[in-house]
Amino acid sequence: MLIKVRGKKYRPEAFFMIAPVLLLYTFVIIYPLGNMVFTSFFEWNGIPTDPYRFVGIGNYVTFFQDYTTKTAFINLGILCVTGLFVTIPVSLFLATVVSKKFFGIRFVKTCYFLPVVINRIAICLMFTFIMLPGQGPVPVLLKELGIAEHFNLFNDIHTAMWGVALVNMWSNVGFQMIIFSSGMAAISEDVYEAAAMDGVTPWQRLIYITLPQLKPTFKIVVVFVLTGAFKVFDFIMGLTGGGPGYATDVPNTLLYKNAFTYSKFGYANAIAVIMIVLCLVITVVTNRVFAERAGE
């Protein structure tokens, strides 16, 4: 006996084989997401025995009316912009460096990729000591050069978020470099050899051969960079805790504080839903943009 699904016939044993995976996916992914969306329409303190109070879209309205939301999205924009216009160009440059063959290439690759494998809280601790006011090497150097007498990167309301963005870029550039270098390795050497025979300069080779061939790789990297900005949490909590004040808060930290500090789990789930929707929109738009360019 065969089961017909969308015009195709399948043996019933196939459904029994995928049933455990479907059940696991349902309990691990589908149910938590459904429960999150459901509770986002209620005011609830997270205690199972306490009642839910239905507020409709009240949590969503409150989020967009909150005075901290504007700052959180500005900070999120800083992470996205620095990722797009600093992390991607730097990682592409590093990928072109490691794609060459020279003595010590393995050591160079390891050094570039090292920030990716270091524990992120350890990175926070490292940069805290580097930027420690009055004692860290950077503040001391700036003071000796007469540039800044009291440099305090992570505790200044005007520079704290840029400091977090710097650490985030430093930690992610190695990962994007690996993606770009993998894309470059997939480009046929015959194309480069033909270009060399035609007298193409290294700059023309990069602009007219390498970059067009890396369009699928760029799509992956852009999605990673933009959605990764939405997931930045540990660097903010480890370096600034969202401060000074709420100067370095992003939607993720607002979600955490409302859930685990103020016990507003319904409101926190509403923030989580908004973030998921925004990530999906970014992914779809990025795919559309690169698909249109590929068509052109």
Can you describe what's shown?
The structure is a single chain. It is built from 13 helices and four strands. The two termini are 48 Å apart. Strands 1-2 form a two-stranded antiparallel ribbon. Strands 3-4 form a two-stranded antiparallel sheet. The protein is mainly alpha-helical and 296 residues long. α3 runs antiparallel to α10 (215-230) and α12 (251-261) runs antiparallel to α13. The protein is flat and about 75 Å long. A hairpin with a 2-residue loop joins β1 and β2. Helix content is 71%, strand content 3%. The chain has helices at 12-39, 58-65, 67-98, 105-117, 120-130, 137-144, 160-185, 189-197, 202-213, 215-230, 234-239, 251-261, 265-295; strands spanning 3-5, 8-10, 42-43, 53-54. The mean pLDDT is 89. The protein has a domain at 68-116 and 160-295: MetI-like fold.
